[in-house]
Amino acid sequence: MPPVNRDQLARAQRIQTWSILIGASVMLSLSMGMRQSFGLFMTPVTGDLGISVADYTLAIAVQNIAWGLSQPFIGAMADRYGCRPVTIAGTVLYGLGIGATMVATGTFMLMVGMGLLMGLALSCTAAAIAMTAAARAVSAARQSLMLGAVSAAGSVGTFIAAPLAQVLIADHGWQIALVGFLGLTVVMLPAAFATGVVDRIPAGRAWGTGPAEPDLGFRGILEEAANHRGFLIMAASYFVCGLQLVFLTTHLPTFLADCGEDPMLGAQALATVGVFNIAGCYVIGWLGGRYPRQILLGIVYILRSLAIAAYFLMPVTPASTLLFAAIMGFLWLGVAPLVSGLVAQIFGLRYMATLTGIAFLSHQVGSFFGAWGGGILYDALGSYTLAWQLGVAIGLAAGVAQLLMDDKPTPRMLRAQAA
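Request: output the structure for the sequence above.
Response:
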């Protein structure tokens, strides 16, 4: 057998690493960019189909709950069978969901397309799978920074999708805007394929590490997670992240319209979120490699809640809206590298997609209430006042709980580290 050329091996690993990181970034960017732009469709879709705001937000709520309920199982499939079949299937499902939404004539097809199909697609293409692939592609020392960088790149999609959707809606209607989104799923396909390069790395390890972690099985890792109080607190606190962010992406355009602002301001606000999220994800990811991640998470939740309270208490202007969007954007997806990093720190990499999926289920229950609950309160009261007040109160409580989280690795991981 010829000797191994270490330089060639290192070069091949670098190429594969960048393929994974770039693919995961593009896939996450477009997947989340489209998802965070559906609030722009609320007014034209409800007017054209003759449905209520609550009906539309129910479809968004179904999307989020389908995403959350399926994420642990899709994460387990990625851990067991590899990322590539999952990410490619998710991209196809995204296209099918957009197509079903385009031909919708009422609430049912809207829930099937924008709700169920897109929810399943997001389980396969969004943060849980992208973060798992990125974490396995780099060494432990670089994980937090690279997770932040992938999250930062992932936020570019909002800057692309929101203005694209608003321009197409204004000029050609919401169905043509969805055709534009269909084109974005075509770009996602090669990115999903590239993300699957991570399947060449043995399960439960990253480039340059030692032996793979033991196979506990799905039941075993569930028992390990259920017995870690810190993980349970982190998962429960993740609820507020979904509630606040989906409430804003779904309802902010309608709130601005009620205040008499130009409809384009909603798109500009979402685009501003995307721009500032780039810096926020990178900075928070960098900080996560130097300071306790659970403390940073608690601070993010508290700052978000204070920003929401300040915005809704002040007079609404374009300047205050864009400033609010910039602050929220900086604090937007930065929680993803922190949560993913904590899962890797506590449990290791072998079941990272499964466990981040379980935590994400809590996030999506919050998203469900942020989307649908906000719509119900708006229809019942004619304003969003009670909705944002509840969001702020829950956010502050979750932030304090997160500050007290125990981030100690499991006994299994402590034994592995000692060995």
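The longest helix spans residues 6-35.
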